[in-house]
Every structure is written in structure tokens, then in C-alpha cells.
Amino acid sequence: MFTQNVAQAKQPYRTDAYLDTFQMFSGVALILFMWSHMVLVASVNLGSRVMNSIAHFLEATYLAQIGGPMIALIFLAHFVMAARKIPFNYKEQKAMWTHSVRLNHLDTWLWIVQAVTGMIILIMGSIHMWTVLTDLPITAAKSAARIQGGWWLVFYMMLLPVIELHVGVGFYRLGVKWGWITRSNRKSLKNFENRLTIGFITIGLITLFTFYFIIKAA
After folding, report:
1. Cα distances (Å, whole numbers) of residue 92 to 28, 87, 113
2. Residue 198 to residue 146: CA distance in whole angstroms
């Protein structure tokens, strides 16, 4: 009887460990994708032909048609895994806020930042992916037309820092959780993560400027 109870007690923890591992790998995949995506889109700063050539290669090799939906599935799966630990009702949110204020610890606040930005990305990121994937092929002129028209410039100026903040905090928290970042190197790696986040936000703003003011819309 005792052995059976122990086995039953261990099962949820093993499941949580599997889910946490999947969340880690999906998070790493999304971080690498976002950094790669930023670099590829920023190629427009070197000229429309450069971005169009990269986009053509991705579509000719079906990386856009297949990879896009795969990233969307990983994105949704990652959110479901992360949502297990997000407080959704008022009492849980109030308890979390009280706990955070009482501790007043940077890493606790970073968790809240990541949870809030994750909810925003779920909505805005889904809109962005649907808009792009249902309007292939990707071209610099088409992207410029979208940003130069309507409310899309404001949309991307809001989405850009939210994504980069979420990715940067996620990169840091992964390192802390899985032991890559320790007490001895935490400060230097946190500073590196801050510079990386600021760097990608700067690249993104320059790219939006290029799309809005320089690239001729279709």
C-alpha cells in the first residue's frame, strides 16, 4: 500500500517535469526564431532586393509555408505549457501581487513581466502571424504597404518592445532555472541580456523607420 501511494504521488511531479522540459525546449526554439526573424526582416535596411531574395529563398524551399505554421503550433503549445503557472482569477492575481511586493525581488518581478507580456504576445503575435501567412509571398513592398497604412505602425511599435522584453527575460530566466546562470555570473549575464534586448529593439525601430519612410509601398 505504501509503495502504491508513493508511485501515485510521484506521477504528477514526473508529468510536470516533462511539461517543464517541453516548455524549456519550445521556449528556446521560439527565442532562436525571434532573433533569426529580426535579423532577416532587418535585411531590408540593406535594400529591398536583399530582403526579397531571402524571402524568395524561404518560399522556394517551402520553409515559409511549412515553417510558419510549425512556429505557430509551437507558439500556442508554449503558451499552454506556460499558462499552467499563470494566475488567472482575481484571488490568485492578488496573492501573487502581494507576494511580489513583500519579496521585492527582481526575479519575481521579471516573472510577472514575462507573464503579462506573454498574454499580450498571444493576441498580437497571433494577429501578426495570421496576417503574414495568409498573404504570401512576403515582399519588402508589401510589408511597407502594411506598415504605411492604417494602424499597423502603432501595432508594431507596441509589439516590438513587448516581444523583445519577453524574449530577453525568458532567456535570462531559463538560464537561472536550469543552472546555466549562477550567483557568480548572474550580474554579468543579466547585463548582457539587457544590452541584447536594447540592441534588438533598436534594430527593430530602425527597420520600422525604413519600411515607413524609405521603402516604396506596393
Report:
1. 28, 5, 16
2. 25
| 39/208 Cα distance (integer angstroms) | 13
CATH at residue 47: 1.20.1300.10
3-state secondary structure of 21: helix
DSSP state at residue 211: I
Instruction: State the CB neighbour count (10 A cutoff) for residue 100.
Output: 14
- The widest CA-to-CA distance across the chain, in whole angstroms, is 74
Count of structural domains, the chain? 1
Q: What is the rounded distance in angstroms from the CA atom of residue 33 to the CA atom of residue 55?
A: 15
Locus of grid cell 501511494: 5
Are 148 and 211 spatial neighbours (Cβ–Cβ below 8 Å)? Answer: yes
Sign of CA dihedral 106, 108, 113, 114: positive
pLDDT in tens, 125-182: 888 888 888 888 888 888 888 898 878 999 999 999 998 888 888 888 777 777 777 7
Q: What's the CA gap between 165 and 25, in Å, rounded?
A: 19
Q: 28: domain range? A: 2-214
Whether residue 65 contacts residue 136, with contact meaning beta carbons closer than 8 Å, is answered with: yes
Distance between CA 183 and CA 181 in Å, rounded?
Answer: 7
Given a contact cutoff of 8 angstroms between Cβ atoms, the answer to whether 194 and 130 are in contact is: no
Cβ atoms < 10 Å from Cβ of 41: 21
Radius of gyration of the chain (CA): 20
